[in-house]
Amino acid sequence: MKLGEISRLITIQKILVRHGLDEIAFASNVSRSTKILFYAFPWNWFRRKRGPRGERLRCALEELGPIFIKFGQLLSTRRDFLPEDISREFLKLQDNVPPFPGEEARRIIEDAFENKIEDIFLEFDETPLASASIAQVHAATMKDGRKMIVKVVRPDVEEIIRRDLGLMYFLAEKAERYTEDGRRLGPVNVIKEFEKTLLAELDLMREAANASQLRRNFADSDMLYVPEVDWDLTHKNVMVMERISGIPVNDVESLKAAGVDLKWLAETGVEIFFTEVLRDSFFHADMHPGNIFVSRPEPGKPAKIMVVDFGIMSSLSEFDQRYLAENFMAFLDRDYQKVARLHVESGWVPAGTRVDEFEFAIRTVCEPLFDRSLQEISFGTMLLRLFQTARQFDMVILPQLLLLQKTLVNIEGLGRQLYPELDIWKTARPLFEYWMHERLGVRGLAKGLKDNLPRWLDRLPDLPNKTIDIIERLRDGKIQVELKSTELEKIRTEIKRSNQRTVLATIGSAFVICAAVIFGLDGFSPAMVGGVPYLTWLFGGVGLGLLMFSVG
Fold first, then answer.
1. Are 435 and 521 within one domain?
2. Whether residue 383 is found in the same domain as residue 498
3. What is the pLDDT of residues 336-375, one digit of tens each?
4. C-alpha to C-alpha distances, 421 to 263, 374, 426, nearest whole angstrom
5. Which end of the chain has the lower number of beta carbons within 10 A, N or C?
6. Within this chain, do residues 402 and 509 fall inside the same structural domain, yes or no?
7. Which candidate, 339, 328, 340, 319, places its Cα nearest to that of 377?
8. How far apart (Å, rounded) are the C-alpha atoms in residues 527 and 167?
9. Given 440, 470, 496, which residue is the final one in a domain?
10. Which residues pair with 313 in a beta bridge?
11. Residue 18 maps to a domain
């Protein structure tokens, strides 16, 4: 390790000790045998009153700095294996970071576009509107009068991120090597997922592309508005985008004062989310209240939901979409056997998993949810419980499904804050049914034919030649099929034994028939045994013996 990394590691250890996290480590099952070492450190000689472990962990992450805060935010989405008390505390982590100087932002912008800022903008406000761990946002006005925001990546942030990621990998590897929980939870893979997400947020070209895609998906929507990116003024570390003006979605009093229908707003938010997931397979995965605004309704111009910050987006494959649609529909019908069977048939859980055992586990954790009215049941909670249960059967939860579950929890919580009677099932079910009809019904078949027909027609001219080639190779003995499967060997052996038994049974039957014929012959009186000719005993005994052997 480099000197800077060693110094940083010492700082981290001091912060962890200050918040009593060494006590948590020594209290684990793995460390109980060496708990005496806990009292070898002077700072543990006197008992101090400390808060709950989740609170202590959260405070430690906040003191460790922006990168660790973002890591805690990511962990808050991994509620499929984090203890409930810790994940609940991590949800409180706020990415509030002191801004860097406006003069530095000006320099970064000028370097990116190789031009003076006065030649780019009519006005540029050096005081940031918002500041986070990766970037901060400034207000600007274009020379044509358009109001814009300018997002600028923090200077030297990538170097800081890579330094702290190195330390995280170091700690995660030690945890996996020396602790049972570490081996079970796989923290190294979690760090890899975090690294991928974090480094992607450094590239504002990627975020701009995400925003443009989402804007195109909802170009004709009367529900959602996505601000426009100015591609001529977008760089890897600088992005210029249309500035929107609206009411923060969690400012309920202002929404009411503006005449926004809260029931419409809550249901529309749910509809937008599932439209992104099912129709477009491209959804905004960071839908917390700070990223959602509502336009003020005007005569002839109804309110719209507006979103910002497109650094974290996700998509689902058609397989993932089908998994969600069919499972949610089966849950609505309380068909737990179908849920279990879908998981096994799709390969989400190992093929050898007993469907009845999996079904019982799913029923145990999900049936209590249906004791409540549908309005009270949480999609996100149900999906989380399904993930937790499936993990017990060695199901690997993919990152995109975890992002979906986290976003769903945010959407549900916000929707019910706006309108407590929100029935998410009633809002979402038509979208699931429409998706299944489109993909699995006649229209889905027609679409599949339409999509594949050009490829089939392209290959069709070569089909006769390939067929003739295969026939000629078969005729010339150039194609041989070699079967090595142990199961096929077992079948061959069983067939061989069956043939042997058939032959023996035939011979045995012949002997019995001969014995019967001999016994019935009139006028033939050979040596008698027990009133029956000797030859009858001989043929009949041999025949019955062969029959019994063949049956056995």
1. no
2. no
3. 888 888 877 767 777 777 888 888 888 887 777 766 665 6
4. 8, 10, 11
5. C
6. no
7. 328
8. 100
9. 440
10. 284
11. yes
pTM: 0.69
Q: What would you report as the CA-atom Rg of the chain, rounded to the nearest whole angstrom? A: 35
Closest to 100 (Cα-Cα) out of 61, 139, 137, 67: 137
Query: Which one-letter amino acid corresponds to residue 466?
Result: K
Known catalytic residues are: 286
SS3 state of residue 231: strand
Q: What domain count does the chain have?
A: 3
Element (H, E) at 331: helix 318-332
Tell me: the pLDDT tens digits for 148-168?
999 999 998 888 888 888 878
According to DSSP, the residues that pair with 149 across neighbouring strands are 139, 241
**361 and 495 part of one domain:** no
Q: Tokens for 200?
A: 């992607």
Q: Does one domain contain both 425 and 280?
A: yes
Examine the fold and report which residue of 71, 94, 117 is the final residue of a domain before the chain moves on: 94
Q: Do 308 and 428 have their domain in common? A: yes
Q: What Cα–Cα distance (Å) separates residue 293 from each residue in 224, 240, 270, 404?
A: 10, 19, 15, 21
Least Cα distance to 142 among 127, 124, 130 occurs for: 124
> What pLDDT does 357 receive?
86
Amino acid at the residue 74: L
Range with lowest mean pLDDT among 143-147, 391-395, 448-452, 531-535:
531-535
Residue range of the domain that includes 546: 486-551
Tell me what the mean pLDDT of segment 19-23 comes to: 60
Question: Which residue's entry shows tokens 């995400």?
Answer: 210
Q: Does residue 424 sit in the same domain as residue 325?
A: yes
Locate tokens 């993909």: which residue?
A: 439
432 domain residue, yes or no:
yes
Give the residues across from 148 on adjacent strands: 140, 242
